[in-house]
Amino acid sequence: ESQLNPNYNFENFLEGDSNRLARSAGLAVANKPGGTSFNPLLIFGGVGLGKTHLAHAIGVDIKDKYPEKTVLYISAEKFTQQYIDAVKKNNRNDFIHFYQIIDVLIIDDVQFLSGKTGTQDVFFHIFNHLHQNGKQVILTSDKAPVDMQDIEQRLLSRFKWGLSAELQNPDFETRVSILKNKLYRDGVEMPEEIVEYVAKNIKSNVRELEGAIISLIAQSSFNKKEITLDLARIIVEKFVKNTKREVSIDYIQKVVSDYFQMDIDTLQSKTRKRHIVQARQLAMFFAKKFTKASLASIGSQIGKRDHATVLHACKTVDNLSSTDKQFRKYVEDISKKLSV
Ligand code: ADP
Ligand code: MG
Question: Which residues contact 74 (CB under 8 A, 6 or more apart)?
C-alpha cells in the first residue's frame, strides 16, 4: 500500500512562478527516481501552499512510470507513531528493515520530528541506507532546513544534500487558474468577476482559496440563490477574518513592545531591568498562548533564550497575574489587542 492519493497529481498541480522550481524538480525526480542530484528533494513552504499535493504527485507519477518500484508516502507524524509502537513491541529492527527496502520514500511535514530524538535517530539510519543504495527520498517541511528547530545537526546536513525547493504564495494569475481548474473539474460555472474577486482577496493559502469557493458553491446551492458578488463578499470576509486571528511571534513582540512604549530590540535585550524583563516574559507568555510554536522556538525568536527561560516566563506571568493587580491589567490589555 503506497498511501498515495491519485487525485493529487501533476496534471492538476497548476504551475506558476511561485512553484515552478519545486514543480520541475519534482518532475525531474519522477522521471529518474534516485538518479538525479535532487536527493533528497525537500519541498518547503507555508500552510496550504501545496506541499502535500506535490509530494503525492511525484509518487503517483513514479508509480505510473515505474510500476515495479515500491513507493511509500507517510506523514512524519504517522512515521513517529509507528516507530513508537514498534519500540513498544520490540520490533525496532523490523521497522527499520521495512523502510530500508523501499525505493521511493516520501515523508510529509518533517518539522514534526522536532525534538523527537529517537525518531530522528532511526530516520537518520534509514535515510543513510536508502541514499547509499540510490533510493529516492522526498521530504516536505514548513520551513527551510536552516530555519528548522530541534532537528539534529547530522540530519539537517543530510536534508541539505539534495535540493530544497520553496513553494511560495501563488500570484494572482496562478490563483485564478487554480480556481478555474477546480471549478472546471467540479463542473461548476461561476462568473469571471466572482472568481477574480475571490482570487484577489485570498492571497496566502491555496487551501483557503479553494475553501472559499467550495463554501460559496455550497451556500448558493443550499439557499437556492445565485452566486453573486455580494454572497462572495460575505464569504470572503469570513475567510479573511479567520486568518487574521493567527498571530505571529513577531506580531506579539510588536504589540507588547508598543504597549510598553519600547522598541523590539529593547524587549529582546539582555538587560535585567524589571519592566523590560516583564515585557519580555509577557511576549513569551502570549507566544505560548497564541501560537503553536515550541518553547525552544519561542525562546530563540524572543531574544535567543532557551526553552527553560520561556517556561519560567510563562509560570511567572501566571503567578504575577494572580497576585499583582497592575500586572493582571497588562495581561488583559495585551490580550485584547492581540485578539482583535
Ligand atoms: P500543504 O501541504 O502545503 O499545507 P496542500 O498540498 O494540502 O498544502 O494543498 C492545499 C490545497 O491546495 C490542496 O487541495 C491542493 O490540491 C491545493 N493546491 C495547492 N497548490 C496547488 C496548485 N499549484 N495547483 C492546484 N491546487 C493546488
Ligand atoms: Mg500538507
Answer: 3, 82, 105, 106, 107, 108
For ligand 1, atom 13, name the residue with the nearest CA. 207
Mean pLDDT split into 10-residue runs, the chain, 340 residues: 94 96 98 97 96 98 98 97 97 97 98 95 98 98 91 95 96 96 92 95 91 90 86 87 71 93 94 94 94 90 95 96 94 85
Q: Are residues 299 and 214 in the same domain?
A: no
Distance 75 CA to ligand 2 centre (A): 9
ipTM for the assembly: 0.99
> Cis omega before residue 191 (within 30°)?
no
User: Is residue 183 in a domain?
Assistant: yes
Q: How many domains does the chain have?
A: 3
Looking up residue 307, the CATH number of its domain turns out to be 1.10.1750.10
Ligand nearest to the CA of 11: 1
* Residue 90 CA to ligand 2 centre (angstroms): 31
